[in-house]
Automatic annotation (TrEMBL):
Keywords: Repeat, WD repeat. It comes from Neohortaea acidophila. This is WD40-repeat-containing domain protein. WD repeats lie at residues 227-262. The keyword Repeat applies.
């Protein structure tokens, strides 16, 4: 049985109390497979009803509203690509319907990147997904062209959906998703492991096989600012929807927060708990979700000044294949890839009164809420 617990104090305060994340559900039938020990972006969701995770050469789909249902969204075990008998999925991406960048909510697609430089794109407007064939192609034909990360965003001027493909061949490529045409290719001195675009679409954050992170012009790819502070290669990056906060995570087991209004020095440096950060996500109210390689997802209120009082740890056993933030941060989904106790975990944000009473579901009795709260803060063996 899953072993997990939560620790830490409140993330934010309100007139009625404080918020923090609590266990909501666990579904052992949904188990992602991690294909690379450093790349952990194998979970993607546009909303609670469209959750996707990678399992080798297949991408599975489920709904948190009906988790017993599991379908194959994309079967890439036998592709039409000439140089790839099957596609090992390395990363997934889909536009979030609750993102603050709402201009592309009508673009419902799922993107996957492969170990040999492949990509697959599925139109999610067709129903059912299992009867639809994805569009496939190559991002790179380089022998070391692993697709490491995909970032979807609306183009600044047209609002049309674009995708930024990070690659191990030292390049970042931009795709017009509607036509599946690559419009720009930017070259760098090192492998690119992750990217994040600013909310206004003008700047892009890059991390890769370098101790430094880089701010680039999103349209030309030119490096404008070098961010120093890490002592290891970077694998995670995020830009807050407010536009003011940037986060980078590296193999030095540190997460660095930056103020986008002042790149001269880091705003704050956070130590991870067990291992290095592999995935970073901001909620709509600037809480930073830090997914480590194993066992721990932390939530940090980046607006606070007291590190210890503004951090919560969600602990469990297992390798983390991916994390996604739903409904702007009201819920967090975690793909646990452990062969024995793995599955799909969800945690929800609840408001707790200053008297300690849990008020997340008004329809529950006080006794039921108290029992659930006690259960969710114990360690299950």
């Amino acid at each position: 049985m899953q072993n997990w617990s939560t620790s830490g104090t409140a993330l934010a305060s309100s007139p009625d109390g404080e918020s923090r994340y609590h266990f909501r559900s666990f579904h052992s039938g949904h188990r992602a497979h991690s294909s690379h020990f450093q790349l952990r972006n194998l979970l993607a969701a546009s909303n609670r009803s469209q959750v996707f995770y990678a399992a080798g050469s297949k991408v599975m789909a489920t709904s948190l509203a009906c988790p017993d249902v599991r379908t194959i969204a994309m079967d890439l075990s036998s592709t039409t690509l000439a140089s790839a008998a099957s596609m090992r999925v390395m990363c997934l991406s889909t536009p979030s319907e609750t993102s603050s960048q709402s201009a592309y909510r009508s673009d419902k697609v799922l993107l996957a990147g492969g170990f040999s430089g492949e990509f697959a794109l599925l139109d999610l407007t067709s129903q059912p997904h299992s009867l639809s064939s994805p569009t496939t192609g190559f991002v790179s034909h380089h022998p070391n062209g692993i697709v490491t990360h995909i970032d979807t965003y609306p183009e600044r001027r047209s609002g049309l959906l674009r995708a930024a493909f990070s690659s191990n061949d030292h390049k970042l490529r931009l795709m017009d998703v509607k036509t599946t045409t690559f419009t720009h290719t930017f070259s760098y001195a090192h492998a690119v492991n992750c990217s994040a675009i600013s909310p206004d679409g003008r700047l892009r954050l890059l991390v890769g096989d370098s101790n430094n992170a880089y701010i680039t012009n999103a349209e030309t790819g030119e490096i404008t600012t070098q961010l120093e502070g890490h002592s290891g290669h970077g694998f995670a990056a995020a830009w807050s929807s407010s536009g003011t906060l940037v986060a980078t995570g590296a193999q030095d087991e540190k997460v660095i927060l930056w103020d986008a209004r002042n790149w001269s020095r880091p705003l704050r440096t956070l130590d991870t708990l067990m291992s290095c950060a592999r995935s970073l996500h901001f909620t709509d109210d600037d809480a930073l979700v830090i997914a480590e390689s194993e066992d721990v997802v932390s939530i940090y209120d980046a607006r606070g000044s007291d590190d210890d009082a503004r951090r919560q740890h969600l602990r469990f056993f297992g390798s983390i294949a991916g994390v996604c933030v739903l409904d702007g941060g009201r819920e967090i989904a975690v793909a646990n890839a452990d062969r024995t106790v793995g599955g799909l975990l969800t945690f929800e944000r609840r408001w707790e009164s200053l008297r300690g009473e849990n008020n997340h579901v008004r329809g529950w009795s006080r006794a039921s809420r108290r029992h659930a709260s006690l259960f969710c803060n114990d360690v299950m063996l």
